[in-house]
Amino acid sequence: MTDRASAAPAARAASGVYFGWWVLLAATVGQVFGASNMLLFSLGVFSRPLAAEFGWTRPQLAVAGTIILWSMVVVSPIQGWLVDRFGTRRVNLTTMPLFAVALASLYFLPPNIMVFYVAWFGITLCGIVLWSGPYNKIVAAWFDRRLGLTLGLANAGQGLGTAIIPPYTQLLVGHFGWRAAYVGLGAAMLIPFLFNLALLRDRPQDRGLLPDGDRGDPATVQARAALLSGLTVRECLHRPAFWLILASFLLIGFMAGFVTTGMVPMLIDRGISPERAAAVASVFGVGVIVGRLSVGWLVDRFFVAWVLIGSMMCPVAGLLMFATGTAGAAVFACALLVGLGIGSENDLLGFSIARYFGRRSYGKLYGLYIASFQIGAGASAVGLGVLRAAYGSYAPGLVAMAAALLVVMLLFTRLGPYVYRAEAKA
């Protein structure tokens, strides 16, 4: 190991670039084409052509989004175990081709709604690790002092995807039809596959490096790796912080369910064209990017609870504006505000796990929290439709989501001080 460990810092000195930045690039590109973008943010674009061809109703199509979200309740803990056991790189490179083929296979979708539902469960299973958690685990391994900023940069990829995928899907549907559009989405997975193959690596220790690009002899490398190990899941279950974060992300999921499956249909119901609704979704994506970058920078400098309160005030305002029936150009402002909040949740979760529980069980913990998040999102996708049918308006559901975010702010103030603080420069 000595020769390998000493050679890597020498290579770094020659190139002048810490390899962790290349890993971060691969993680960012991976999130641009992550499963959430490819599945959830394209679903609204397909709703009209599928309804036109098969006669399926809007509520029937909305069930597909709920299946994706609730499938993640089962998939997320398995995802966490896989990446903690085998590493993100190995599992990603195995599942990406499967996910691409499964997505493209919707070209052959028959006029049977049950086949449609089963297909979404199967596609979600094929993309089991192509979500934000595994990429955040890798970023948390390569960076410590700049953890918030680098998580923000990696998760900004998901925001970039929300700005790119809906218009790209709409372009494919408009020019080639919805069947060819699914093939086009599957083909796009070649981009993250190549980046992951060339650049993604699980740990700096494997290259004889320390987090943040610090240098040291092999003994120092191993000592710092042990220092950053953290708690087991069983130990975390006895910490109040674990349950506070779990409840918080259940409630944040309520907002996410609306954004991922309900915003575009809501706008179309208000008389906005599908093309303009897709443009609004792109502005939401810009908000996600800005939210993730700004929150990532802020949590490296300020206590995570105060950053969360500031970031969640934006979607509270956006949701209440949507609830009042805001129309015209103002819908872009609403989408931007909601995007700023959605843009912060992955950063806040990834950062909080590292600071309160360490890195030892990062994948498993992230999987459990995302399962909670998806329960909330799935309940929102169904509940919002039920409330709209009952009251003829989305307003009651939107107000309830805003109230849930106020509760989240209160819960985060009870977390207490960090347990695992950033290490000083070696």
Q: Could you name the key traits of this structure?
A:
426 residues; mainly alpha; Growth Hormone, Chain: A; 19 helices; 79% helix; disordered N terminus
Question: How would you briefly describe this protein structure?
Answer:
Helices cover 79% and strands 0% of the residues. By secondary structure, the chain is mainly alpha-helical.
Could you characterize what this model shows?
This protein has 426 residues and is mainly alpha-helical. The chain has a single domain (2-412), classed as Growth Hormone, Chain: A, CATH 1.20.1250. The protein is built from 19 helices and no strands. The chain has helices at 2-15, 19-32, 35-54, 58-86, 88-104, 113-126, 132-142, 147-176, 178-188, 190-199, 218-227, 233-236, 240-261, 263-269, 274-299, 304-323, 330-357, 362-391, 395-412. The longest helix has 30 residues, at 147-176. The two termini are 21 Å apart. The model is unreliable at 1-14 (pLDDT under 50).
Q: Which sheet architecture does the biggest sheet show?
A: none
Average of the residue pLDDT scores: 83
Beginning-to-end CA distance, first to last residue: 21 Å
CATH architecture: Up-down Bundle
Structural class: mainly alpha
What percent of residues adopt helix (DSSP H or I)?
A: over 70%
CATH topology: Growth Hormone, Chain: A
Are there runs of 5+ residues with pLDDT below 50, and where?
Answer: 1-14
- Integer tally of domains: 1
The name of the CATH superfamily reads: MFS general substrate transporter like domains
Number of strands: 0
Q: Indicate the proportion of strand residues.
A: under 5%
* CATH domain class name: Mainly Alpha
Alpha plus pi helix count: 19
Radius of gyration: 21 Å
Overall 3D shape: globular
Order of helices and strands: HHHHHHHHHHHHHHHHHHH
